[in-house]
Amino acid sequence: MEALRATYGDDSSDSDSETPTPPTLATESKSRKEETLASPLPPPPLSLLDPPNSLGSLDYLQTGQPSRVRSFPHVEGNYALHVYIPVYIPSTSKREMSQFLKRVASSFSGLHVVDIDVPLNILCKEEHKLDQVALGREFHISLGRTVPIRVHQIDSIVTMLRQKLQFQKRYWIDFNKWEVFVNDDQTRTFLSLEVITGGLSEITKQIQAVNEVYKLHNLPEFYKDPRPHISLAWAVGDLSGSLKKVVEEETKTSSLGGATMWNIKDVEHIKKATKLLQYL
C-alpha cells in the first residue's frame, strides 16, 4: 500500500500542497529492493523432497538399510559394460510368484528387491505394490561379466557384439527352478529363478559369443559353467545356506516348482543391451 500511495498520492488529501512528491526511479528501485529482501522466499513444494521414482506413501527407505559394494573401483573415464537379455515377467505368472515371495519373506528376513533395494517384507504388506515394484520391472539374464572399459573400446565392442548376436532366432526360455546364488565377493546373496531346460542351449551359445568379443579386448570372460538366471531379491553377506533351506521348504509346498515359459526375441534385446554403457 505504501508503494501505491507513493505513486498515486493519499486519497484522504485533496490539497495540492499536501500531495507528496512523486518518487524518482532510483527511490522506487530502492524501495522494491528493500521489500524483496524483507520478504522471505516461499517454502519449496513438498514434492521436491521426495526422491525420483518415488514408490508411494510407504516408508520404504528405512534407516540402517544395508549398502551394496562396488564390483570394481571408480576410475575417471571408465564405462561399465553389461551385456544381457532383458526379461519381463508375464502377468499370468506374477500371482504365483508373488505368493512364493511372500512365504519366503515371512521365513527369511533381510531380503531386498533387486536394483531398487526396497525391503521385500514391506512390499509384501500390499500385494499390488509387490506385483508392481518387485515383479513389474525389467530383469536380466547376464551374457557376460559387468566390466569397466575405456571410451576408445566402445565402438569396437558394440560393433562386434551386434555382428555376433543380431541374427539370433526367437526361442523359449523356461525359468523352472528357484535357486540361491552368491556373488564373487560373497557380499550379497540372491534369490533367483534359474534356466535349466528350455532356452539354456541358446543362452549358452550367446555367452560364448560374448566371451569371444571380451577376449579380443582383454576383458575377463564369463564363468566356465554358466547358470543363466534372473535375480529377484538379495540380502547382505553370504546367507546362502539358510536361504536355501527356506527356498527348498517353500518349493515343496508350492505349485510353482518352476515359474513359467515365455518367448524371447533377442534381436530386440541385444540392441538394448549394446546401449548399456554407463559412465561410472
Automatic annotation (TrEMBL):
Q: What is the first-listed, main subcellular location in coarse terms?
A: nucleus
UniProt KW Nuclease keyword: yes
Keyword set, alphabetical order: Hydrolase, Lyase, Nuclease, Nucleus
Please indicate which superkingdom the organism of origin belongs to: Eukaryota
Stretches for region Disordered:
1-54
Keyword Lyase (UniProt): yes
Q: What is this protein called?
A: U6 snRNA phosphodiesterase
Task: Quote a single Gene Ontology cellular component term.
Answer: nucleus
> Which EC class is the enzyme in?
hydrolase
Summarizing the function annotation, the protein's role is: Phosphodiesterase responsible for the U6 snRNA 3' end processing. Acts as an exoribonuclease (RNase) responsible for trimming the poly(U) tract of the last nucleotides in the pre-U6 snRNA molecule, leading to the formation of mature U6 snRNA.
Which GO terms label this protein's molecular function in UniProt? lyase activity; poly(U)-specific exoribonuclease activity, producing 3' uridine cyclic phosphate ends
In Gene Ontology terms, what is a biological process of this protein? Answer: U6 snRNA 3'-end processing
